[in-house]
Amino acid sequence: MTDILNALVLISNYVLVPGVTYGAQLALGALGITIVYGTLRFANFAHGEIMAFGAMATILFTWGLQALGISIQPLPTALLALVPAIAVTVAMLLVMDRAVFRFYRAKKSPPAIFVIASIGVMFVLNGAIRFIIGPGDRNFADGARYLIKAGEFKKMTGLAEGLGIRLTQGLTVITAIVLVAALFWFLQKTRTGKSMRAYADNVDLALLSGINPERVVMISWILAGALATVAGALYGLDKSFKPFTYFQLLLPLFAAAIVGGIGKPVGAIVGGFVIAFSEVGVTYAYKRFLMYLTPEGMEPDGLVQLLSTDYKFAVSFIILVIVLLVRPTGIMKGGSSV
């Protein structure tokens, strides 16, 4: 029985807890992609860089607050910095929309043009972020480090394996739950949210009903910017900030949105966790885990690792290809509705 408990603690440490945390981060990011796709009807390839921009703004405001001696110990100061960072990111997105995407909306350009424009925006943002904060790692986490320490867990339970849960992991999950609940309440219960859903379902009918399309676009960018900033900051707090990492996150983010069902918020959440657990589960070395469960003398010799962590993002691509071949609409049968 002790071996089974040790195995459960071990798998929780390296698969379950990281999978839930990473899944929550991907879900928040994929929700932003889904909202933009559902209302503006194009795949925004700049979303990874929007997350990076939001995380960068959070870091800069965090440093400013720390310089002033302002903190909320034992919580990270970045939580305070999120509010102005969201405002700055949303302002940037609204300017970006007015400068780039509004022109193509007025010309009623096809979605492919919007995608190409978003790729251009992606490279501009990537360059700007590297110029402002640099290309290297930026660790901005402060406050308490652990909710549960592995050493204390061992002493308390007497097990050989210790469960360690970082504060940033707990904050990620709690924040994701609160934001997702607030978003669904907004979309389902408020007049503005219902207008967005109506616009996403049928543009012509929504316009005939008196819905202001520019207001819907503005609210969509505000929601996408807020979600991207929080997702980017939480990812940076959990794993440290590096601009190029967010460029690499674009594939898992789109995989999550498409696997779940593009245009469906629930699908984005489901897809985020599917991609996260697939990446973490496939790249984990199960040797130590199996040693607790197999009889003595039958322990595996190798690492029992399906893929190296270097190929983590390849998992997202493989899952994406399989879903597009087998079920192109995704798990939740996505379309254009929010």
Name the beta content range.
Answer: under 5%
Mean pLDDT across every amino acid position: 90
- How far is the N terminus from the C terminus? 47 Å
Structural category is mainly alpha
CATH topology: ABC transporter involved in vitamin B12 uptake, BtuC
Sheet with most strands: strand arrangement: 1-2
Percent helix range: over 70%
**Regarding CATH, which class?**
Mainly Alpha
The CATH architecture can be named as Orthogonal Bundle
Order of helices and strands: HHHHEHEHHHHHHHHH
Number of domains: 1
Rg, rounded, reads 21 Å
> Which residues form runs of ≥5 with pLDDT under 50?
none
Largest sheet: 2 strands, antiparallel
Please report the number of helical segments. 14
The total count of strands amounts to 2
Shape descriptor reads globular
